[in-house]
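Researcher: Go.
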Amino acid sequence: MPKLGWVRFRWSRPTPAAKSYRITRDRAGRWHVAFAAVPRTIPAPGNGEVVGVDRGVRVSAALSTGELLTVASLRPAERRRLRLLERRKARQRNGSRRRERTKLAVARLKARETDRRRDWTEKVSTDLARRFDLICVEDLDVRAMTRTASGTVERPGRGVRQKTGLNRGILASGWGKLVGRLEQKAPGRVQRIPAAHTSQRCSACGHVAAESRQSQTAFRCVACAWAGNADYNAARNIAAAGQVVAARGGQGSPGPVNREPPTLGAVA
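Model: Structure:
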């Protein structure tokens, strides 16, 4: 390696047919060798199955099959240690050796969390690409959703702390990474569905009402009284919308329409 000399490293997987490579060092002090190669795609199973994926904070990915998947994160003991290290770092003097050791310990814990999230994303995306012919996800602008709400000095933002916690939860769930890996592993089989009314529409009768979403996890339709998990209900709506879009050749999506029953003597 230029400027480094001979470098010994461990093979973690078979070497791809790559023309270039890059050696990096992360904030936890670990060295990595990355080869630039086009990843292999996963062939469709050919079973005609369609799945809807609803991304959330408490439930990272809810499937229309009823599966509720949560991203792997730090364990309770690791979170307690991370809080203690953060408090210790706040008391230590800038530039001191103790502060540098504390920063390295914090970086190693956060790197562990990042590795677990990446591993979860790879496994879930591979599983979905192997099981379903069509994968439907919400068309969300994650970058815009995770922008800061602090505002400016002249016009300060509102609910900055709450928005910061929401941004942290969205990024910790890996919303963008999951869809990105799905589109790479199953090209042409990932359908983006407009997110409007997916959480307010009843997947049983199609009635749209904001009052049906009782809480973050509870959904009860005000029209037909169907009740279930809110994320599961949204995933079913996403899957149904994906089937409609696929039937139309990718043109348009169903809008929120509440149909009243016809009265006697009415002409349909």
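Model: Residues 20-39+53-247 form one domain.
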